[in-house]
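Task: complex structure prediction.
Instruction: return structure tokens for all chains below.
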Amino acid sequence: MLQNTGNQFTALQIQTAAVLANDEKALEALYTANFYKAEMFVLANSGSAEEAKDIYQEAFIAVWHNIKAGRFVLQNGSSLEAYLFQIVKYKWYDYLKAAKKMKLVSVEENGFVEAAYNEDEQHYIEKVEQHFKNLGEPCREVLTLFYFMKKNMQQIAASFSWTEATAKNNKYRCLQRLRNMVTGNNK
Amino acid sequence: MDTNYTISTAEFESIEQYLLDRMETEQRIAFENRIQTDSAWAYKVEEVKLLLAGIETATMKERLNSYHENLKKNQPEKGGGKIIFIQRKLTVAASVALLATISIWLFTTSKNKYEKIYATYYKPDPGLMSAMGVSDNYVFNKAMLNYKIGKYKAAIDEWGKLKTELPQNDTLNYFLGAAQQANGNNAAAVELLKSMTTDAAKPFYKDACWYTGLALLEQGAVKEAIPYFEKSDRPESKELISKIK
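Output:
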């Protein structure tokens, strides 16, 4: 778990920065700290364990997107854990309403605004996700290391025993290949 | 979305610099002015933004499943109910059978106790990104990537192959042991990790002591585990020892 090591930053600021940087420890700690509470909530509100997992992961992604989009406002007394749990609740009530398992939500008004894409953009992102799975190992690794794990080209080159120039070329080739798969053209 | 245009490598590079916030102020202002005045350019920027968002989201979804698997793996077992049920059924059985049941109960309870302690304290080693002396970087790091995303079996297979070439490599032995442990095979983990606990000058010495202790504990070898916890220097080792003594 992240700790506040100085007087200048709060633990929440450090945690938020770590989530923003896709720090694996911070992400896993946030996931682990909240899951069972969220599962209990869903189970207690007409849901199954499988639905709890799905809604929790959906809420987690929404929190992560909102942090990236600058929509999570750091305030005294707020915590990412509480924010995530709140979103689980909103999403679950929305799901129940949509599935007509609940007639009216009067207690919890959905005040959560998700960093959203329009339909076309969402469709494009989903295609990227789908084709990324079929991209082939070396490309997936290079793109994951650069865009998710935020490694620099020097580190990526060292991982693959490449020169930096080769790593850079390969990364763009992989990105281009992925784009071609998504758009269906070979330009 | 109309994507019937090309994006050159130089364009990709420039857009990426902008999206990853790696531009100088002047360069950024010029870039943003171009977005305002050149709609074709604005389209390209928007598309690359979605492409990168898709890559990150796809990776994040994989990670979430791996965190979930770890969570379930570390969940303390809910034992005991079955045993009570069995005992009830056996209340009129012969004394020999009753004694046997009690023995099984005692054994299972103590086993559950150590398994629960193990689940509380065991967290897989987070892994490395640099090879640290392993000559075949690509193979080693490919396995490390699998290890870090929770694909322990794949990591074991890849590091296992590498071990035939580098049987004495400490980094390799340590992480092969770590992967075996994360994959639930503590017997194999002990064999690999123990070799790292004989010399305090070896890399990973303290971590190897900690994980060897945990692997032994999970197998019920409590007395054997304690010296390893003592040597590990972990802040939580004293508390753990007090729970098992």
